[in-house]
Amino acid sequence: MKDKKKGAQTLAFRHAPVILAASSIVGPMEGKGPLGEYFDEVRDDHLWGQKTWEKAESKLLEDAVLKVLQKAEIPKHLVDFLFAGDLLNQITVSNFAAGQLSIPFIGVYGACSTFTESIALGAMAIDGGYAGVVAAATSSHHDAAERQYRYPTEFGVQRLPTAQWTATAAGAALLAGAGDGPRVTYATVGKVVDFGIKDPNNMGAAMAPAAADTMRQHLHDTGRSASYYDLIVTGDLGRVGQPLARDILKGDGIDVSENFADCGILIYSEDQDVHAGGSGCGCSAAVFGGYLMHRLEKGDLKRILLVSTGALHSPTTYLQGESMPAVAHAVAIERQ
Amino acid sequence: MKDKKKGAQTLAFRHAPVILAASSIVGPMEGKGPLGEYFDEVRDDHLWGQKTWEKAESKLLEDAVLKVLQKAEIPKHLVDFLFAGDLLNQITVSNFAAGQLSIPFIGVYGACSTFTESIALGAMAIDGGYAGVVAAATSSHHDAAERQYRYPTEFGVQRLPTAQWTATAAGAALLAGAGDGPRVTYATVGKVVDFGIKDPNNMGAAMAPAAADTMRQHLHDTGRSASYYDLIVTGDLGRVGQPLARDILKGDGIDVSENFADCGILIYSEDQDVHAGGSGCGCSAAVFGGYLMHRLEKGDLKRILLVSTGALHSPTTYLQGESMPAVAHAVAIERQ
After folding, report:
1. Which residues of A touch B320 (CB under 8 A)?
2. Is the whole model's pTM more than 0.95, yes or no?
């Protein structure tokens, strides 16, 4: 049985699962960003031969899984389960990719928090002894998300300064019970937090309290201080949400002024005209699969807390005048 | 470590988690059906004081969780995790309910297979020692689903004979490591199976191969014969899909002629004008939470295999001419 002192909101892995490899495939704009060189693959356009953006995203997710298998030199039939999700209605991207991959499939949804949700579940399956190897993968596609959540993509509607840019990106992590690589030591499952924010062009503000809540809970449950981590990286609070989360934590006496980064800020440069930064299930997945995993493997990062954050609104509830609940899930990833 | 002979597609629980209680709340039409007397609550209309069908469904899911806590006499703060999902875009119903309940939340999506997916994950969390008590809950709402998947509900568009009727229903199960109640002994996670069926008015045909695939895999992995179970109950293949699944299994030498039922057929009577039967994430959840749990508690059922089945299409992919992938997850529930 797990150490009850740790608190049930945080899963403490006894034999911390190893991340054998991680992958990242991105679109042209993400490739031109500051992390471009770290991604496994940068694609030239938004369709890569597919008929629709939705199919293109599904191929992106499928390819991210195939890429991580190739990198780890693990054949597909050895993967026991695929944990995956995405932003599109009915997580259609993941469903079709899972059909192509033919790996037993657990579909999850946590908006942009889906990547760490998938890793948390995958780590539980490995550590609990229910699986030998699992893949956790998520994706997003700017054009497909834009037309679903906001306006027809071709409108090119003027964006607000607080708006975030859905990344065209996918990432996958391959987890196993043994092998070389950084390990998933803890996972903190978030509560849904709703501060009553109703503007889908300001997701950062809606997600910041959820991110702070999960981070606070994680530190409480593990007995760690924020400075334990070389880097605490939120999913995509962006330039609006990240300072808010920092301030909320400061109010709780938690100082993250030295080691707090955000995937939504890291993925684009300020001159890329993305306003508040990147977002999308693929954002933290690709930033982890490319940049963060590279730094963990190189050894200049040894302990990170990845906190993917999700705004859980839907276009329907937004139009009905409802607020935007949010959630964040945190995974501690550490190497010797 | 798990017994590798069982095959990783099937989770074998060492200390099979107990279902302490299950709940079911349904709409008026489901209340008038043959299982009406078994449900905890039958509601009079489709809004019960809420402003929208979406909010009404969210309340339904929240209330199903509160009801199961009440039945098990477990206070809410003892529930470590809520595993939940629904049919609406961005599983918005579950997100809002999780916000109200303030229980650490894992959002899942498997269309109408979501109930057994949630139970499988919840059982893994309990059996693996990561949680003491978890809730697994799903819901659907006829009017909310109708306008999202098909036509504006008020159209009252003529339905095809192969179409299924989304049930207005929610169900929840409360799982724990110890206590009285039937136990979840195995869970078989399905692969996504796509037979190329493109007609969303014939979900039964799309789901039947996935149901048969998971059932076949479950029997293979556990070494059991179909006759081991007093009842094998699919989620909602309906009157079109169930005979197809039976025939596919017969072709594989698996005889389920004596013990095969379907929640989508059980929930409505033939004269209720639902054509091929019921569907929706809430269908198998409420049929389990009401009728099946009652029979398990009474003891006239001792071993059941619940196989919730999901059609994984989205209205977008349907309009783009894509097929309907499908998945089914099976959980074995047994009592002494």
Report:
1. 51-52, 54-55
2. yes
